[in-house]
Design a protein that fits this description.
heterodimer; A: about 100 residues; alpha/beta; three-stranded parallel β-sheet; 5 helices; globular; B: about 300 residues; Heat Shock Protein 90; five-stranded antiparallel β-sheet
């Protein structure tokens, strides 16, 4: 059975617009994958998730592991609009760069 | 002290402007002390005019020239005073730091610096929240961020670039323009194609390709071709338009219409991006933000 952890994106990164901060999120998610932990990631609806940030975090997870691994590890707590943005990014990224 | 005067075109014609820019740039390294920027009988400068002019003036300032301004109609001068435009090249003025505007619909010009990207986009969003109180402005901050990151990832510009964001209440249009004097999107894309032994395309086609999700010149390892596509999505969704000048290419994409591509003879070494949206199309901000979703 997976351990579940709640974590706020604000507590991991200082902004959501740069590659460097994206890497921080990548590290947290990849650690959760390795430890078979389920993450409930809280993302403010006001956060601007740039493509640089997403590429270095979620995108890198998809490339290193795969989308299914990401999906089985991370749930998102946010607004519907923010989730739609993330979901669209993941679908686009996966369709272009899938293994 | 010796001086040189450059005179801003009175019209808004791109051909006049790019001729003016290129002719002026040829004079940057001439030996003189003071650059006089003559506003002629100009009554209005749009966001794209302001940022490309700022980049031009920067080129002279960085070569050690003092900057002075003359002429211009009252309506223009008042606007420029409110956004503190003329102060930018005063000694001891920090152009990288965020400057608070005296205008209720226009943010001050900002010299893009990597350290301040987050601060600028945060301030821009807060500023316009005062006007569009319950509207979702993430698209604006995202588009600004994408364009700034694009400059730092791809342009190799000596002067970075400038941005200005303005709201026009009479037409409900929110516009931002960003300019840098770097390699140019078209040149960057074509260099990438050549490195892959693929054929070059026209500059306007290269600009269009840069907007396609997944198309990237991979200037940094983390580029994946999403950035400018996000800006296009923003203008498409919100009934606006996106205009990009780079090298000898022009791209204009009006929401829901076909691309307009033109191969120009502007020889513009750099990139000028103007994004406009119809603020009546802004959606309401999501109030409920504690929903749980599976990816």
């Amino acid at each position: 059975m997976k351990t579940k952890t709640n974590i706020s994106l604000n507590s991991i990164v200082s902004n959501t617009e740069t590659n460097i901060e994206g890497v921080r999120l990548f590290c947290v998610i990849s650690e959760a994958i390795k430890n078979n932990t389920e993450l409930m990631l809280e993302i403010d609806s006001d956060m601007t998730l740039s493509s640089s940030f997403l590429n270095s975090s979620f995108g890198e997870i998809i490339e290193r592991f795969d989308l299914e691994k990401l999906k089985s590890t991370v749930k998102i707590k946010t607004s519907r609009t923010q989730f739609q943005r993330i979901s669209e990014y993941l679908n686009k990224f996966n369709s272009i760069y899938q293994h | 002290m010796s001086s040189l005067t450059i005179t801003i075109p009175n019209d808004q014609n791109p051909s006049s402007w790019f001729s003016f820019i290129n002719d002026s740039l040829k004079k940057v390294n001439l030996k003189f002390d003071i650059l006089i920027v003559d506003f002629n009988s100009v009554t209005f400068l749009d966001t794209d005019d302001i940022v490309i002019l700022a980049c031009l003036i920067d080129s002279f300032y960085n070569s050690g020239k003092e900057i002075k301004f003359i002429n211009g109609q009252d309506s223009l001068l008042e606007h420029l005073d409110e956004i503190k435009f003329k102060k930018y090249w005063n000694p001891n003025f920090n152009r990288d730091k965020f400057t608070v505007t005296n205008n209720t619909t226009t943010l001050c010009l900002w010299h893009i610096s990597k350290d301040m990207i987050v601060d600028y986009t945060t301030y821009a969003t807060k500023y316009f929240k005062n006007i569009f109180k319950d509207k979702d402005l993430i698209g604006l901050s995202l588009s600004l961020t994408e364009v700034f990151n694009n400059i730092f990832d791809h342009s190799c510009s000596n002067i970075n670039g400038y941005v200005i964001t303005e709201y026009f209440p009479d037409t409900n249009i929110l516009s931002f323009s960003v300019c840098d004097f770097g390699i140019g999107i078209a040149e960057t894309m074509n260099k990438y194609y050549l490195s892959k032994r693929e054929p070059k395309v026209t500059d306007s086609e290269a600009i269009k390709n840069s907007l396609i999700t997944g198309v990237s010149s991979y200037s940094t390892p983390r580029n994946r071709g999403f950035g400018l596509g996000n800006v296009l999505d923003y203008t498409e969704e919100l009934g606006g338009q996106l205009t990009i000048y780079s090298n000898n290419g022009l791209l204009l994409k009006v929401s829901k219409e076909e691309y307009y591509l033109e191969n120009t003879n502007f020889n513009f070494l750099g990139t000028l991006i103007k994004a406009e949206i119809n603020t009546l199309e802004l959606s309401k901000k999501d109030e409920e933000d504690n929903l749980v979703f599976d990816l």
